[in-house]
Amino acid sequence: MIGTGMNSLSTPPATVARATRFRPLAALVHPLTLRAVSFAIALLAWEIAGRWPVSPSFPPFSETATAFVALLSDGSLLRAFGVTLTPLAIGLAVSGAVGVGIGVAMGLDERVEWFGVPIFIVLQAAPLAALVPILVMAYGIGLLTKVSIVCIMAMPVIVLNSFKAVRHAPRSLIEMGTSFLGTRAQIIRKIILPAATPVIFAGLRLGAAAGFVGAVLAELLVTPTGIGDIITYNQSVADYPKMYAAIAAIIVVSVGFIEILGFVEQRFLRPETRRTA
């Protein structure tokens, strides 16, 4: 009772009243609330722009949502995702494993850096449309070409981010490990890699986003299959709601996958950034 009385006396009534009054305002500015409002505004703008009599090739959101339900009901959208996600998954797995290894090697050894950095800078800057005919002539129009396009899009981002993450590891920690007579292998394993892991994981997220772009472009430029087939076919028959539904579906899947990677990064690699309720 004494402790309760002291707490009630130590908190001024005006402070309690202000906290109670601004509690609904805090809920309104919550990140999830702001995201939901931003998403709703975007959909409302889409609906208004689609109903504006400017172009019949841009349907409103309501018609696109109806077309999405139709594609989902007849199973064509799920089958298309099965085709599209196969080269994407293979390409991202190869890009992640090989790209992180190359980036870490370039960050640890200047000779590897001199050899590898120009190659991946050129790959990152090169226009993909100019490389697709070369890949088609070399590997045909099969799975290998699509996987190669995904790797070309994703790997330079992953490699360069991994390289910069290792190269910018805290020098003070490295010098401390050296002063404690740590071997090079111990410094790499216990200091450099743990410090570089969050940035490497951020590079994986960016590489995954680029890989989704590469997978869709491969289906549009190489051979119309999967999501690319739905987009090109409905464009040819002027069924624009289904075309936009397929585009929106791949965007939603891409954003969802990147958000999952972000949650894993925040949960396991950056616990200090987690918000407390």
- Low-pLDDT segments: 1-9
Radius of gyration: 25 Å
Please report which band the strand proportion falls in: under 5%, 5-15%, 15-25%, 25-35%, 35-45% or over 45%: under 5%
State the total count of DSSP E strands.
0
Averaging pLDDT over every residue, what do you get? Answer: 81
- Number of continuous helical runs: 13
Order of SSEs, N→C?
HHHHHHHHHHHHH
- The coarse overall form would be globular
Structure classification: mainly alpha
- Determine the fraction of residues in helical runs and give it as a percent range: over 70%
Characterize the largest beta sheet: strand count, sense, and whether it forms a barrel.
none
N/C terminus separation: 28 Å
Write structural notes for this entry:
By secondary structure, the protein is mainly α. Helix content is 84%, strand content 0%. It contains 13 helices and no strands. It has helices at residues 2-10, 13-21, 23-28, 31-51, 61-73, 76-108, 110-125, 128-139, 143-167, 171-179, 184-221, 226-236, 240-269. Helix 7 crosses helix 9.
List the helices and strands and how they pair.
Blueprint: H1 2-10, H2 13-21, H3 23-28, H4 31-51, H5 61-73, H6 76-108, H7 110-125, H8 128-139, H9 143-167, H10 171-179, H11 184-221, H12 226-236, H13 240-269
Helix pairs in contact: 5-13, 6-7, 6-9, 6-11, 6-12, 7-9, 8-9, 9-11, 10-11, 11-12, 11-13, 12-13
